[in-house]
User: Fold this.
Amino acid sequence: DIQMTQSPSSLSASVGDTVTITCRASQVIADYLAWFQQKPGKAPKSLIYGASNLQGGVPSRFSGSGSGTDFTLTISSLQPEDFATYYCQQYESDQVTFGQGTRLEIK
Amino acid sequence: QVTLKESGPVLVKPTETLTLTCTVSGFSLSRPRVGVSWVRQPPGKPLEWLAHIFPNDEKSYSTSLKSRLTISKDTSRSQVVLALTNLDPVDTATYYCARILGYCFGSKCYWRFDYWGQGTLVTVSS
Assistant:
């Protein structure tokens, strides 16, 4: 199976900051990479697919980039509602796999 | 408005079989390039993909759980059912269903997630 490694596992930031989360695949996945946001006790929410395409209704302060094995999720001008856990996911393979998550906390 | 809702038992005993139902609305399970997936999340742990079911009724399973999983759908009732046999306490998790959308290039299709259900917590304990 393709392994997805996220870094950092957690980070602290302040409202208004810009943060970047990295996801690395153990093999080339082209741009078949998605990002999800999950708040405590809630279902994941789809943010980005195809490495850089925003799902409908997702604010433009979220952006994704990358191709091949290295990907990033950038959140600009952090808002209070953005503090959550973020997961990357590859769907290039029939065996879908998720990263271990990055917890974004308020500093 | 697309919605998905999981239902099933909240407590099951070890060695029993878990059967979960995902009831969808706002789209048809017979629609081309639209399928449903199941994902679970043990308490405090990451997401784990379990299975997909595709519009043509083909299925895909997690390699590690394939021998214990069965996914099926009833298009007329807008339901997808997941069965997991021989339960163990490590199967305690919140189980989610999600809609998946496919885009195909030649013979290969790629399936992305969009809408998710709210999830249902299942505890395996005697």
Summary: Chain B has a mean pLDDT of 96. Chain B touches chain A at residues 37, 39, 46-49, 52, 60, 62-63, 96, 98, 110-119 (CB under 8 Å). DSSP finds no helices and eleven strands in chain B. The two ends of chain B are 40 Å apart (CA to CA).
